[in-house]
């Protein structure tokens, strides 16, 4: 049996006919669905670029993974111009035989295909990966009609979870509480941590001693942030303001590294200058996944993710796996990973600054946080997740078998 799956991410196709991902949905990511399905068809927007910048891309196509190209668009206005062509592709996709369906929501790709599946009475599973109410919160994105789309997105996802025969959530409690299912449900994270990426207790001691030495010598405390900056979903602006407060008002010696790329980088650089901390903040750009980012986590003293919205954040879990002390906002699935002592409300600059100061004043927290972080992160190792994925995919296949009588 084949699988058709939607993603909201936009992909690139080059002149050779190969497909590339700008984000985490790579061929390695998509291969997980092949453990139960013979072939995977990815229903997504595809931009045709003959010679793209391959340094910013990762291969997404490969053996037994194909793409169903949806007419490329960016933004609601452009979608409306192409909606008839998009719906036509969705209708033809819904009519394909011998395939089960997984819709990753929220997102317009999942919405448009769900509409066509409902018209012909075909069942489908959902993977709920984020909360549209948080995605479109104030400060996250500047879109005309944001507040209206925010309400519509929340209401639509609630109804989708009620309609679907099977719903998988990337959180254990957070998204389920806001968007409860009517039928079968399960928790299955989409974050994969390689079994060999976890740090042991000896490295936690090295971290602690290094931090003590820096504090005694008044050397810079290294703070790290990782995230896409096309929009301000992950609130790097809040982090810059909190770090600036620690430096300007309390004289802290901090070096902040903001890793990632996107159209908001220039604004964030300007903000750093306006707050007189540009000399303490570096923007090295986007890092490739794997060893490069793990090394960054090993070198940093504190990882901070003050997001305005999250599902189950990959970068936070990767930092935790490396025993890096972490602070974050209490949105999405983050409260399932960190206890209240290390959480702040989104957009609260003063509270985040206070947490940073407390970490510097109490370096022994480094040991406590490191041990707890590795323990929690191990729950998301590849070996632990495979059984959950297999269960979800088997249940999705059974939906098709029961509906078709095959």
Q: What structural keywords apply?
A:
406 residues; 9-stranded mixed beta sheet; 14 helices; globular; single chain
Structure write-up:
The chain has 406 residues and is α/β, with parallel strands linked by helices. 42% of the residues lie in helices and 19% in strands. The chain has 14 helices and 15 strands. The strands form two sheets. Strands 1, 2, 3, 4, 5, 6, 7, 8 and 9 form a nine-stranded mixed sheet that branches. A six-stranded parallel sheet has the order 12-11-10-13-14-15, sandwiched between helices. Strand 6 (99-105), helix 3 and strand 7 (125-128) form a beta-alpha-beta unit. Helix 2 (76-94) runs parallel beside helix 3 and helix 8 crosses helix 12 (349-361). The longest helix has 23 residues, at 382-404. It is globular and about 70 Å long. The N and C termini lie close together (11 Å).
């Amino acid at each position: 049996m084949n699988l058709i799956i939607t993603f909201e991410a936009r992909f690139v196709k080059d002149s050779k006919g190969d497909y590339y991902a700008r984000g985490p949905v790579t061929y390695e990511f998509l291969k997980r669905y092949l453990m139960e399905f013979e072939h995977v068809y990815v229903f997504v927007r595809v931009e045709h670029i003959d010679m793209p910048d391959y340094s910013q891309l990762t291969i997404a196509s490969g053996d037994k993974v194909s793409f169903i190209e949806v007419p490329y668009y960016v933004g609601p206005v452009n979608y409306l111009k192409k909606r008839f062509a998009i719906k036509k592709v969705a209708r033809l996709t819904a009519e394909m035989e011998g395939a089960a369906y997984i819709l990753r929501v929220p997102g317009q790709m999942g919405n448009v295909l769900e509409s066509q599946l409902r018209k012909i009475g075909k069942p489908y599973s959902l993977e709920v990966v984020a909360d549209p109410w948080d995605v479109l919160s104030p400060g996250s994105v500047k879109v005309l009609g944001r507040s209206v789309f925010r309400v519509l997105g929340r209401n639509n996802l609630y109804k989708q979870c009620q309609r679907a025969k099977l719903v998988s959530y990337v959180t254990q409690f957070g998204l389920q509480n806001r968007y409860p299912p009517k039928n079968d449900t399960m928790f299955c994270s989409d974050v994969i941590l390689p079994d060999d990426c976890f740090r042991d207790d000896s490295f936690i001691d090295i971290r602690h001693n290094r931090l003590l030495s820096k504090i005694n010598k008044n050397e810079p405390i290294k703070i790290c942030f990782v995230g896409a900056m096309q929009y301000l979903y992950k609130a790097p602006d809040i982090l810059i303001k909190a770090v600036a407060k620690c430096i300007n008002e309390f004289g802290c010696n901090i070096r902040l590294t903001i890793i990632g790329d996107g159209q908001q980088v220039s604004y964030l650089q300007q903000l750093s200058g306006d707050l007189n901390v540009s000399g303490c903040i570096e923007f090295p750009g986007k890092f490739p996944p794997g060893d490069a980012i793990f090394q960054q986590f090993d070198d940093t003293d504190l990882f901070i993710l003050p997001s305005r919205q999250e599902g189950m954040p990959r970068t936070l879990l990767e930092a935790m796996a490396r025993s890096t002390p972490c602070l974050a906002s209490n949105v999405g699935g983050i409260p399932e990973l960190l206890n209240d002592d290390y959480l702040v409300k989104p957009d609260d600059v003063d509270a985040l600054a206070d947490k940073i100061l407390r970490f510097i004043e109490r370096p022994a927290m480094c040991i406590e946080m490191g041990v707890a972080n590795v323990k929690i992160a191990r729950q998301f190792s590849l070996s632990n997740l495979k059984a959950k994925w297999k269960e979800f995919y088997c249940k999705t296949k059974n939906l098709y078998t029961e509906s078709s009588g095959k």
